[in-house]
Amino acid sequence: MKTTLIMSTALAGIAFGATAQEVNVVSWGGAYEASQVEAYNKPFAEETGIKVNMIAADNPATPLRAQVEANNVTGDVFDVEVSDAIRLCDEGALIEIDPAMLPAAPDGTAAADDFVDGALLDCAVANIVWGTVISYNTTKFTDNPPTSAVDFFDTETFPGKRGLPKNPKRTLYLALIADGVAAADVYDELGTDEGVQRAFDKLDTIKDEVVWWEAGAQPVQLLADGEVSMTTAYNGRIFDAMVGENQPFEVIWDGQYMDLDMFVIPVDAPNPEAAMEYLKFATDTQRLADQAQYISYGPARKSSAELVGMYKDGKTEMAPHMPTSPENLENAVLDDPEFWADHSAELSERFNSWLASS
Asked: In this predicted structure, what is the pLDDT of residue 13?
């Protein structure tokens, strides 16, 4: 038996089976997931009648891979990092997505020309541009606040524990920038044995002062509890704490690490038609702009930028808090998925060995 849904113009004429009246979306939890619920899920369910089930994971690529390997895929849409999208696509785990299927910009510009560079892959469509940034508790530094990546490594002038993610991708680059490497040269440096050693030598200078975090909510909590005086964190999480919860935090944009998050659909998704309609809906111009009302991640479409306005409080202008704002890009490192595809295994092994050493 088939049930036909009456939808908006963009979705009209799509018929789903009775078993496809829901879509399972696996994302990252926290304020980011909350922004997706408000900007994507609620209006999608209202327009289509399709229920959206949101499932949180520390890294959605992990359950995606596990489900694929177990031949038991239960998620329909996964929000993953670029490097994971490339690897999973290469392994045949994801369906290919034709950009021509995606909605055009309001002025008619084709999706292929409207998304920012790197946002469209064979099997993935980006929704946000986000940054890993340094944040500090302002109550710890009232007279002489830190302003740079160099200051993050200066525990004499700026005492206190430091929070860092327990992975090489968002740790080694910061050590190099703090050691004087320009953002544009980070990957060239990491591509050499000398550059890798230079990064670990710099990390050695604060190793005894580091509290390692693994999930996005942890660094915010570490700052709030006073367990660290400075930490790296996802910029949207820090914004939510600063503006949404009035926490005494400040952001240092120097040396931010920029990345894209991408929607992918596994080959054996239980509700593939609903999944594709959700992906198209959630990555149109208006929905990406709407998300920026709730969290300070930059939309992956160029046409969304002019629609970004105020935070949901009606008082905070969002543009200065975006990782893509020009002033925040001055010393930013953009993720290089090809580099990590080639070097992730060896650098992860080296990083884990370094962690385990005294």
From this structure: 34
